[in-house]
Design a protein that fits this description.
Layout: H1 2-33, H2 41-52, E1 57-62, E2 65-72, E3 81-87, H3 97-105, E4 111-117, H4 132-148, H5 155-177, H6 181-198, E5 204-209, H7 210-220, E6 240-244, H8 254-260, E7 268-273, H9 278-293, E8 299-304, H10 318-330, H11 334-342
Parallel strand pairs: 3-4, 3-5, 5-6, 6-7, 7-8
Antiparallel strand pairs: 1-2, 2-4
Helix pairs in contact: 1-5, 6-7, 7-8
């Protein structure tokens, strides 16, 4: 009886010692097999913004994945149209206050806003990796830890699972980054126009910064047709164009401007900001000269002086007033077209 009791007690002790190791290995394997909540840091930031602004956030489907857009509906009795804003920033939280002021307050005056962040022309810097000395020290400490501690049989599968998860996320991000910028911008614009078409909103004005103006117009201009019957109405996806020259380090060259100003019927407002140094004066003169040489019917160049810091709550800013006035005069509402179709003999 004593021998049997001793054997039973020894079996229970070994089982008690193996259970913690087994539970730890199961926990580590379950953690390693669990997919990360977000595929990238950028997608995490966009998801947090979308959750914080649920009334405005909108996910659009493209062939390269989902993109976040910010849509503000009108706050007036009638809707005059929509302003499609395109800015070369990866995330909406990096938008400058100048454009955020226009996006947030234009709906007060009957214009909806749909804002998209397009890939930047200059890629953001890659975070620096730790130095080789620190990595070698960490490797030595990890080697000492591995030699001192017993190895568990589930350690290798857990490491391989975590490496496979990281490699899959990195491969998806690398595949998205390998797509040319022009193709991404074209896909984003298609998604925005399809969404507006579903909403029966065809009266669109496009606002773009100088960094994304050329690839955006490369997509939009081929969709514009001349309208000899009514020169004031553009036959295409947009009725007017606003260029905001924010990135002075990325000026538009002559070839790009000639392509952007290729539609002579398209009204263009070209906005520059101070300080008006020698480089900007050269850029303004080049813009004006190319617009005159392309014989644009309606080209306006605007220079805005330094003003107090524009905030989202400033619904009477000078830039907002000029943009609103330009759109009101150059982009006719879709409601007027319907009324003309019903009463063809009426002269407004």
């Amino acid at each position: 009886m004593l021998a049997a009791d001793g054997h039973t007690q020894e079996t229970e002790n070994t089982a008690a010692q193996s259970d913690p190791q087994q539970s730890e290995s199961q926990a580590s394997s379950s953690v390693s097999s669990e997919a990360p909540p977000y595929e990238s840091r950028a997608m995490r930031d966009r998801t947090l913004i979308a959750n914080a602004l649920q009334d405005e956030s909108l996910w659009l489907d493209t062939e390269y994945g989902k993109i976040l857009a910010m849509h503000r509906i009108t706050e007036a009795k009638s809707t005059l149209g929509v302003l499609l804003l395109l800015h070369a920033a990866e995330d909406p939280q990096h938008w400058p206050p100048t454009l955020e002021n226009v996006r947030a307050n234009l709906p007060r005056y009957g214009w909806e806003t749909l804002a998209l962040a397009v890939p930047p022309k200059i890629a953001p810097p890659i975070p620096a990796r730790p130095s080789s000395s620190s990595s070698s020290q960490s490797d030595e400490s990890s080697d000492e830890k591995n030699t001192n501690e017993p190895s568990s049989p589930d350690a290798a599968p857990a490491a391989s699972a975590s490496s496979s998860n990281s490699s899959s996320s990195s491969s998806s991000s690398s595949s998205a980054s390998s797509v040319p910028r022009e193709q991404l911008i074209a896909a984003y614009i298609d998604a925005a126009l399809n969404y507006l078409k579903e909403k029966n909103q065809f009266n669109v004005v496009v606002l773009t910064d100088n960094s994304s103006a050329y690839p955006s117009l490369q997509k939009l201009l081929p969709m514009i047709n001349d309208n000899p019957k009514d020169p004031k109405t553009i036959d295409g996806p947009l009725q007017a164009l606003i260029i905001i020259n924010l990135q002075q380090q990325e000026p538009l060259n002559r070839e790009e401007l000639e392509s952007i100003f290729d539609s002579k019927q398209l009204p263009v407002m070209d906005i520059f900001f101070t300080p008006d140094d020698a480089a900007q004066q050269t850029a303004r003169n080049l813009h004006r000269a190319v617009a005159m040489r392309k014989k644009l019917d309606d080209y306006q160049q605007l220079q805005i002086n330094n003003q107090p810091t524009i905030t989202e709550t400033d619904f009477q800013s000078f830039l907002l007033g000029r943009v609103r006035g330009f759109m009101q005069k150059k982009a006719s509402g879709i409601e007027l077209k319907k009324e003309d179709e019903k009463t063809p003999g009426t002269i407004n």
